[in-house]
Design a protein that fits this description.
Helix 3 packs parallel to helix 5. Helices cover 16% and strands 40% of the residues. The N and C termini lie far apart (97 Å). The N terminus is likely disordered. Strands 27, 28, 30, 31, 32 and 33 form a six-stranded antiparallel β-sheet that branches. The chain is an alpha+beta fold.
């Protein structure tokens, strides 16, 4: 932001417009504006358009203005102002006087921006005084740097506009092309256009170093993210975010497409990773070396062939634990220790072999549900989660209204249906699937009714966890109800008269 003094200084040239036309600028005043670092080119050009010039610029004047820092917009504004003043002064002269006016060429706009890998175009207006010059060939001197065999040329249309089509360019950069006649002759005030090729959107981010290893008393490490487009051009001004620690970090790429992020030992987890993100791209992981140089990413259990099995049984194959350093070498000779939840392992500690691996046999616990094996090596801890599945049916349980009735007697009313729920347990008391038994009971429900003619089966519904049997006593009496196949459950049913 410029100071109030700078704004006040520029206002001395602009403010008189509120009441009357501002006085034209002489050469000294114009150079003073151009060499003042507080004024942008667009502001100087605006002052020139408003005030016009007190002098007719010669070739030497144009050269002096360019040396003072005049860009394409300022030069074009000065040339247009000079032509406009000449036209105004000679508005009452004849057509022959119009023909004596100088030829002016002006790029519209004077600054053209395109993206790397994309073509661009430059529009130039050619006129004599106020009259557009039609069907005139113009050239852009210097466009061979874009890979053209010769400088680009174009012919003006009926409006005096020539459009130059420029090829795609792979590399970023800024070029100034001079507008000349088709034969290569210079034009008054040597008009030019500033052509800028900028990088396209980011398509790749590369991190340096490959990993972070805090050494000795080091407490800070630096990550450099280089962001480029699809053609390898650096992408400046791009936000780069780092996450994975307690406080996210953000840096902006510089003119070389590089962003620097500093991490400290307290801001990241050793043995873990941080993520670097650039909008529109997949996140990139960077590893933080664990103490003793272990790789947190490549230290842990390999994927298990089978991570589940019946309670009280061993896994079908041993687990394999592997440890590597951040350099990618096997962490051979180091001791790893194991502890478990709802499981047993053998061995409980072991030394890593030459490949940095050790095999461990696992027997699942007797409680159905999750089991785990935890490995500790140096200060790195890794865990693998397993699952203990219930075993086969060992016993059946009948209940009525949530109360177990196995081997007991229940009282029911004649002709009134009642429900019994059948569940299964394995050898260790875990609830287990009863689906297969339910299918067998549905298939044999006809035989069940034949055996129990006075205790009729009304419905039988089965799911994975329970079978619900609805019965009805036909007459008074006591009946023994037995259900199951091989393994059974039973209850005595005493049928009494319905209450009035």
């Amino acid at each position: 932001m410029r100071s109030g003094l700078a704004v006040l200084a520029l206002a001395t040239f602009v403010a008189p417009l509120a009441a009357q036309s501002p006085p034209p600028l002489d050469k000294t005043e114009l150079i003073r504006l151009l060499t003042n670092p507080l004024f942008a080119q667009t502001e100087v050009a605006d002052v020139v358009r408003r005030s016009c010039l007190k002098f007719h610029p010669t070739e030497r004047d144009w050269a002096d203005l360019r040396s003072a820092g005049a860009g394409g917009e300022v030069i074009a504004s000065a040339a247009a102002c000079d032509s406009r003043r000449s036209s105004s002064a000679g508005s009452s002269v004849s057509a022959s006087d119009e023909a004596s006016q100088p030829v002016t060429a002006m790029a519209q706009p004077a600054d053209v921006v395109t993206m790397a890998g994309m073509g661009g175009s430059v529009r130039v207006r050619l006129s004599r005084g106020r009259t557009p010059l039609r069907r005139t060939t113009l050239a852009l001197r210097g466009t061979t740097v874009l890979g053209l065999p010769r400088d680009a040329s174009a012919v003006t249309d009926d409006s005096g506009i020539a459009v130059f089509r420029l090829p795609p360019v792979a590399r970023t950069g800024t070029h100034q092309f001079e507008i000349r006649t088709g034969g290569g002759a210079t034009l008054p005030v040597q008009p030019a256009v500033l052509y800028s090729v900028r990088s396209s959107r980011a398509t790749r981010v590369r991190l340096t170093p490959d990993y972070i290893a805090f050494r000795g008393t080091d407490s800070t490490a630096t990550i450099v993210a280089a962001v480029t487009d699809s053609l390898g051009n650096p992408v400046p001004g791009e936000p780069v975010d780092l996450s994975g620690g307690p406080t996210p970090l953000t840096a902006i790429t510089d003119s070389l497409g590089r962003a620097t992020l500093a991490v400290t030992t307290g801001s990241v987890t050793r043995g873990g990773t941080v993520q670097v993100r650039v909008r529109g791209l997949a996140p990139v992981d960077m590893e933080i070396a664990a103490p003793a140089g272990l790789s947190g990413v490549n230290t842990g259990f390999l994927p298990a062939a089978s991570a589940y099995g019946p309670v009280g049984n061993p896994l079908s194959e041993p687990l394999i634990f592997r440890a590597r350093t951040v350099q990618g070498t096997a962490a051979a000779g180091r001791t790893v220790r194991f502890r478990t939840l709802n499981a047993r392992v053998s061995p409980e500690s072991a030394v890593l072999d030459s490949t940095g691996r050790v095999r461990v046999d696992v027997v699942l616990g007797i409680r159905a549900g999750e089991a785990a094996v935890i490995a500790s090596i140096d200060s790195v801890e890794r865990i693998v989660t397993l699952r203990a599945e219930p075993g086969p049916i060992d016993s059946l349980i009948l209940d009525r209204n949530g109360e177990t009735v196995n081997g007991r007697a229940i009282v029911v009313q004649v002709g009134v249906p009642f429900a019994l729920r059948l569940r299964a347990r394995d050898l260790y008391g875990n609830a287990t699937s009863i689906e297969a038994l339910g299918q067998a009971l549905r298939a044999g429900r006809g035989r069940l009714n034949v055996r129990q003619q006075d205790l009729q089966l009304v419905t039988l519904e089965s799911a994975d966890t329970a079978v619900v049997v609805t019965l009805k006593a036909v007459r008074l009496g006591s009946y023994q109800f037995v259900i199951g196949s091989g393994i059974t459950a039973n209850v005595r049913v005493d049928a009494v008269q319905q209450r009035p």
